[in-house]
Amino acid sequence: MHEVSIAESLLKIAVDECKRNGYTKINNVRVCIGSASGVMPEALLFAFNALKSETIASGATLTIEEVPVSGHCSECSVDFTTYENFVLCCPQCGSTAYTLHAGRELDIKELEVD
Amino acid sequence: MKFKVASKILEANDRIALENRRIFSDAGVYVINLMSSPGAGKTSLLETTIAGLKRTLKIGVIEGDITGTDDAVRINRLGVPVVQINTGGACHLDANMINQVIHDLPLDKLDLLVIENVGNLVCPAEFQVGEDMKVMVLSIAEGHDKPLKYPLMFQESAALIINKIDLRPFLDVDVEKIKNDALSLNPSIKMFELSCKSGEGVEQWTSWLQTLTS
Question: Which of B39, B78, B96, B214 is least crowded, fewest Cβ atoms below 10 Å from its Cβ?
Answer without folding.
Answer: B214
